[in-house]
């Protein structure tokens, strides 16, 4: 069970402050380009608890996605990711915001890529780990957006299920590579 401070969701998860607050735009527009504050929140409130609860690095990916699913469920598919929301609304018209959002997405993908590096022995040797890390972010953000529009977890769950099949295929391919050596 993953525990977060504050109210818990169905499996012991609580939405992090930045998912339900409106402070992100001010923080994003600060001149400092590090983005460290939001990365720290992502780490403390999403990634670190998942890492504590799940040893398998690929299952950590699904633990992170599970956090977002629980958040969707707790809001009856009424809220999405504020970073994604801002990207949709402000990225074209605010250069500094776009740059900060890109940094946050890169940080998120970097964390997932780290899980995939830890799972390197479960993946084919020739897989560029940046691509599946980006795919995970795309499934998460796209799933959130579609679930909100449909007011249903169905689109999010379908995307995650397909992602799981993708990782199962990668694992099988890695197994066949290992067997042929």
The amount of beta strand, in percent, is under 5%
**Count of domains:** 1
Enumerate the spans where pLDDT stays under 50 for 5 or more consecutive residues. Answer: 1-35
Main β sheet profile: none
H/E series: HHHHHHHH
Average pLDDT taken over every residue? 80
Radius of gyration: 17 Å
CATH A-level architecture: Orthogonal Bundle
Count helical runs.
8
In CATH, the topology is named Tetracycline Repressor, domain 2
**What is the end-to-end distance?**
39 Å
Helix-strand category: mainly alpha
What CATH first level would be assigned? Mainly Alpha
Using the alpha-carbon principal axes, give the shape: globular
Q: Could you state the CATH homologous superfamily? A: Tetracycline Repressor, domain 2
Give the strand tally: 0
- Tell me the helix content: 55-70%
Kindly summarize this structure in a few lines.
The chain is mostly helical and 181 residues long. Helices cover 69% and strands 0% of the residues.
Structural description of this entry:
The chain is mostly helical and 181 residues long. The protein has a single domain, classed as Orthogonal Bundle (Tetracycline Repressor, domain 2). The protein has 8 helices and no strands. Helix 3 runs parallel beside helix 6.
């Amino acid at each position: 069970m993953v525990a977060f401070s504050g109210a818990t969701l169905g499996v012991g998860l609580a939405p992090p402050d930045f998912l339900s607050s409106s402070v992100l735009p001010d923080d994003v527009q600060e001149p400092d380009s590090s983005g460290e504050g939001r990365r720290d929140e992502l780490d403390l409130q999403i990634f670190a608890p998942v890492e504590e609860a799940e040893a398998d690095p690929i299952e950590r990916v699904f633990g992170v996605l599970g956090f977002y699913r629980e958040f969707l469920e707790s809001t009856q598919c009424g809220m999405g990711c504020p970073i994604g929301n801002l990207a949709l609304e402000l990225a074209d018209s605010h250069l500094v915001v776009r740059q900060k959002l890109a940094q946050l997405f890169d940080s998120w993908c970097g964390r997932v890529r780290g899980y995939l590096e830890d799972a390197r022995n479960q993946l084919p040797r020739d897989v560029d780990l940046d691509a599946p890390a980006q795919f995970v972010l795309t499934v998460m953000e796209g799933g959130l957006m579609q679930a909100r529009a449909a007011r249903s977890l169905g689109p999010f769950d379908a995307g995650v299920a397909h992602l799981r099949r993708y990782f199962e295929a990668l694992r099988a391919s890695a197994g066949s590579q290992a067997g042929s050596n």
